Structure formats: structure tokens, C-alpha cells
């Protein structure tokens, strides 16, 4: 499949900011049947039951001519020519390994949870691996990532060792956050993962700040090579939250090097995206703020990767933010405590048939990029990594009492001055975690 | 004026093995610190001829700090230093820090081209550029979060709330992210952010512009709160807050921006955790902060004329409390009066009462009296507004009752 600017320049009427219930989209009219007075309280749009149409890159008028080559993949299928494949063999195996790591890790988490090794709210990522792998494998170590509570695989894809993530989930002192964060708060300074947030939407401003930092370094501090990009991951539910819109505005206003990645898995716990959103096409909200909005099939890692490549390069160049909506699906419930009774089994089956790992496997076989043997050996390797991670976590110590007060303040003088005139942190009981603060 | 506690440089993340008596936490002996503090307090708080000093009617005196601090030592030179207003002192502190460290930046509404709604950032955008003094859209939650993200990735932002009350919109970010992220990340990320802005009851500004947010923020673990009250401590606290590795919320007061004072030419940084001895005394300890300091000092004049000798302490550090200075005072006078502008319920005074009772109960000869604002949304009408906050006459009466 060759990619050239001409694919984009085709005069496909791009629905910039058009609301579908006012007039139908020119070529996709069949997708949006206006139902008249809705029989349920929700959007008049139907869920898409057809194969994913070619994704639209909606760019505001002023920027359309400046758009560089954007991939155009027809009818939801990978179109290939014998000379130009989308990935090389090494890349293919890397992608496969990353997705297998994500999938097997989450399955192991479920196992460990039901065995009583981890507690609380654990949100698993099964089914969405294509989004994570598609984006992360194009990032540099210095790039920053912000996620939500569904962050195990984001941390793993960014490079945080499985051992560190697993022991964090077990609540051990060797976890990436010393056991103080837990499932929903994965942080890694080394790999530039700044969360892990429990409230949806609250990570987006933090991501905007990281992007601002990058721009500041480039323009104020004049650091050479300060082109770090920031990725903010969040779901469809977050797209109805004010912080999302406020940050879209600020990012576009100041052309921050950030990519807003919406993992639209159609469900926010038990709330269907259509019942919560007046206009469910999230990618359209980008142009309203002056940035490109892209919709991509999030069950296909290669498509995600192509869009990611363009968006990341755009941000690195200094051209500003992009909003990428990835249509994806979570195979498990919202969390391990969710009975997942509301979703239609037919819908689940449909998406299970589009399992991103199976799709990549098929692609690799069809294009003779890998053999069964090679993929099996990758899976075996990951099994070993995970067994080691569980063993390591089992054997790691629980956090001692002395750890209780250490990280409340970066500068422990913040605990103040005690009645005896000394700073509270100078109290010997402080290091034991038993000081009265 | 001797340089006081110099803020220490980068403090390494605390670990159990760090020696607490290493150079990094070098603290000057406590005694000399408070002594030089009080010496400083003396020559600084003289009444200012710039403002019209008419015979005091309660409303007139709200702004005029005409109580003399103490009759003590006047041997320190009074003509060195330079005179400026409180908002200029804040600006001076801010500018010095921005000059010193290029990572220090300001963000907020109208801080850039407009110069700040109270002129604290006037001229800085022209000098440092639009990115370093960033005019944000009206989105408190998001730009505060943006400041936090920038702080986590290496910058040292100062977020200005145009009015502290607007920061209620940023409560999510301040509570969840500002306070917590250092802890939940296991100490990996520091958040050296300063959140500042004017609060308190002004002149008939209405309920929503007259809020005291210190009571709402005080429970958030992981943040420090300070309140400035004079140009001298405003500049010192601003610099200390910027240099601190902890997130600090600096509370200014709308009515104090035009206070004039002579401050030293030399650079100085104050301690974020210490209280300020305003007037040493023997009979009763009066604890206060921000604008109420001036009501107390005015009441002190009356009290002195009536033969009382109140000890006035400006607690400055609202979280954590400086229990050493407070405790020493309680042990001397055995009577405590707290005068604050916070609401009665759950305010700083309530916490302070609890802390003193817990730590110094044996030294008290009488129950602690706490004078706070009424639990009323601040009315617009001038007369009603006056009755919601503590007035000097009430302070005098309370001291008289306490000292019976």
C-alpha cells in the first residue's frame, strides 16, 4: 500500500463540524438514520454495525492545504501491494510481542485478583491492545504519557518492567510507586509515565502541562532537541467532561505538542456512549477547536500506527495537537468487579471476531512476515516474563511502617515545627513512621 | 537586616537512610531566629504618613497599621532599604526568582498583558515574554492542572487565581493532583508549584468574591499554606514558596495590597513554616494572620492604654502551624485568643484551637477564645459586611473577658 498526499487530496467532502442530525453526511448517509423522536433518551445516531468506513481526517479550512500525507485505507481492509508492506518483520514481531505482553499480563492480573493477591478496583485492557501498541512503539523514551485508571498496559508498552507493575499491583514496596499508587496510579519517572488517574479527565490538564513544558523548553529555555511529545489517553466517557474541552482549547491555542487519544470503547461502565453523548462522533470535536480530528479503527494495530505516526510527527514539528478517536472495545467488564450484564452478547461477539492480536497474526502470516513457530516462541517468552514477575512480586516485601510518611512532602520540612522547636521530620519517630504529624 | 533562614536548595527525595542532620537540613538555632525576627518586626511596622490618619473610626482604620509594634530596640538603621507597596513587594520577589531561575513561570488570567488584576505581575510579560508569563483562558481547573503537569515535568510554575474564590473550580486539581501525586507516585515526581491569589473579605465585593479558602484547603495532605500580611513577609514568603519543592498555596488579601513599608535592599527569604512575633507581651497570646493582624494591632493600642500587655503573633504558616512559637507564647501568658477572618465552622481557628488544646492544655488558665467571621455569606451592604468580620472593639472585649 503506498501512501501519498494524493490520497488525501481526493475531494472527499469532509464533514467539518457538520452535525449529522441536521443533514446527512454526503457519502455515508446510510450510517446515520435520523430516527425522529428517539424511543430512548440518547443520541439519534445508530451504532455502527457496518465495517468501518475509511477514516476521515477532518482538518479545518485554514490548514487543509498544509496537510501532509495521510494514510487512506479503504473499506476497513488492509490493502497491500507486494512491494510496500506496512511494517517490516522486526516491527511486526515487536508489535506482536507488545500486544501479547499486554493481553497475557491482564489475564494474569485477573487470575491474581481472584486469588486474593491484589485488591480494590482493577481495570483491564483486554481488547484495546492495538491502541496502546500502535502508539507507544513509535514513541521515544523522553516522550510523556498520561493515562487513566486503565493504565497497566500503557505503563508496560512505555517500557515499565512487568515486575515493577505487578508488584505495584500486589502493593509491595518494590512496585513502581513503592506500593503507594496501586492499579490506578502507575507512575514512572524513568519512562515518563505521569499517571494513572482515578478521576476521569483529571489527567488531561496534567498532560497539557507536560506538553507546555516541552514547548517552554524549546522556546524559552532554547534547549536543543526539545521536541518531546505528550500523549493523553482517555475514554469516551471523558469526552463529555469539561476538562477535555478546556484542554482542547488551550492545546490548540498554544499549539502544544500533544495528542489526545480517545479510546472509545462505547461503554462507560454501564453507560452506553450513545446514551450519554449528544453527538457521539468524538473526532468531530477536534476541528471545532482548530485541530485535526481523526477517527481510526482501534482494533487494527497497523491502522492505529499509521495515524499515530502522522500525529506524532505533526506534534514534533511544532504544528500542534491532534485529536485521535480510536474505535475499540474492551472484552472484559469495566473492572473486575463489574458483572458486565448490560452489553449485548452479539456486540461482544462481533468485536471478539476483530481481536487485534488475531488480526495482526493473520497479517503476519498472509504476508509471510513470521512463522507460527516464531509467534509461539514470543508467547512462551512472555509467559516466562510474567511468571517471573509474579514470583518476584510474591517474594517482594510489603512496605514497612517507616515508609508511611516519607513521600507526603518532597521537602519534609512541610510537616512543620513541633512544640519542642525542632522540625517534625527531625523526630526520630518520623523515620519509623510513627511520628505524630 | 540580617538575612534570615535561607531556603535550602534542591532537597533529595527523603529516604530512610538520609541523615537528618546533614547539610541539607541545616537549620539555624531556633533562638537566634526568632530574636532577629522580632528585631526586624520593630523598625518595619511604623505607621505610614502616606495614608490619612484621622481619629479612628472603625471603618477608616481597617487599612491603617497605626499600632506601633513594640517599644523595644530601635538601634537598627531605619533609612536603609526601599519603600514599596505590598503588591510591589510581591512583584519584586517574583521578579527576583524569575531572574534567578529560568524555569520559573507564571500562569493565570490576565497576568500577562493586563499586568495582573492587582498589578502583581505588571511589566513581567514585556520583560519575559508571553510564554513565561502566560495569559490563560478562563479555565481554572485546567490551567491549574496544566501548572501541575508542568511542575511535574521540570518547570516551576506560579498559578495565579484572579480571586482565590475562583480556585474552588480548581479544587479537583489542587486536592487530587497537587497534594497527592508526590505520594501516589512513590516520590518520583515533585510538584514545586505555587498557587497564589487574593482572598478574604474586601469592600462590599459580595459573597462570592469574599471567600476564605484556607479553611477548605487545609485538610489536603501534601500541601503547605502560608498567608502574607506585610510587604516584608509578602516578598519573603513569595520567594520561599517559589524555592520550595513542596506545593505551596500563598494567600494574599484584597485589602492589603496597598500597604506601604520599607523593606531591605538585600535579598532575603523567609521560612515557610515559622510564625512571626509581632508584639511581645505578657498577659495574653493573640494569634492571628492576614488582615486581622491589623485589627488586632489596633485593638492592641486600646488595650495597652487600658493597661494590658498582649502578645501578638502572626501565625503566617496556616498549614502546618508553628507550634514552637505558639507554644512558647502559651507557656508564658497562659491565655489564648485567636482572631481570624475564616468562618467559624471548620476554619483555621478551629484547627488551631484543637492543636493548642492537644499540645498545651496544661498551660492554659482559661479556655481558648476564637473570634472568627460569622457563618454568613458575606453580604453586600456595608453595615452587614462589617458585622460579619471581627472588629477591634470585639477583640478588646474578648481580651478583657479573658484576663479577668
From TrEMBL, chain A:
Organism of provenance: Stylosanthes scabra
Coiled coil keyword on record: yes
Coiled coil: 368-395
Region annotation Disordered: where it falls in the sequence: 1-22
Phylogenetic placement of the source organism: Eukaryota, Viridiplantae, Streptophyta, Embryophyta, Tracheophyta
Cofactor: thiamine diphosphate
EC number(s) per entry: 1.2.4.1
NCBIfam families in the cross-refs: PDH_E1_alph_y
Gene3D superfamilies documented for this protein: 3.40.50.970
Subunit structure: Tetramer of 2 alpha and 2 beta subunits.
Protein name stated in the entry: Pyruvate dehydrogenase E1 component subunit alpha
Pfam families xrefs: E1_dh
Top-level taxonomic group: Eukaryota
Record has RNA-binding as a keyword: no
General function of this protein: The pyruvate dehydrogenase complex catalyzes the overall conversion of pyruvate to acetyl-CoA and CO(2). It contains multiple copies of three enzymatic components: pyruvate dehydrogenase (E1), dihydrolipoamide acetyltransferase (E2) and lipoamide dehydrogenase (E3).
Gene Ontology terms, MF aspect: pyruvate dehydrogenase (acetyl-transferring) activity
Keyword terms of this UniProt record: Coiled coil, Oxidoreductase, Pyruvate, Thiamine pyrophosphate
Domain Dehydrogenase E1 component: 99-399
Catalytic activity: N(6)-[(R)-lipoyl]-L-lysyl-[protein] + pyruvate + H(+) = N(6)-[(R)-S(8)-acetyldihydrolipoyl]-L-lysyl-[protein] + CO2
Automatic annotation (TrEMBL), chain B:
UniProt xrefs under InterPro entries: THDP-binding (IPR029061), Transketo_C/PFOR_II (IPR009014), Transketolase-like_Pyr-bd (IPR005475), Transketolase_C (IPR033248)
Gene3D superfamilies found in the cross-reference section: 3.40.50.920, 3.40.50.970
Keyword Acyltransferase: no
Cofactor(s), by name: thiamine diphosphate
EC number: 1.2.4.1
Keyword Oxidoreductase belongs to the record: yes
SMART domains membership: Transket_pyr (SM00861)
Reactions listed under catalytic activity: N(6)-[(R)-lipoyl]-L-lysyl-[protein] + pyruvate + H(+) = N(6)-[(R)-S(8)-acetyldihydrolipoyl]-L-lysyl-[protein] + CO2
A GO molecular-function annotation: pyruvate dehydrogenase (acetyl-transferring) activity
Enzyme class: oxidoreductase
Transketolase-like pyrimidine-binding domain location: 84-259
Pfam families: Transket_pyr, Transketolase_C
Keywords: Oxidoreductase, Pyruvate, Thiamine pyrophosphate
NCBIfam families membership: PRK09212.1
Function: The pyruvate dehydrogenase complex catalyzes the overall conversion of pyruvate to acetyl-CoA and CO(2). It contains multiple copies of three enzymatic components: pyruvate dehydrogenase (E1), dihydrolipoamide acetyltransferase (E2) and lipoamide dehydrogenase (E3).
Name of the molecule in the record: pyruvate dehydrogenase (acetyl-transferring)
Primary gene name: E1BETA2_1
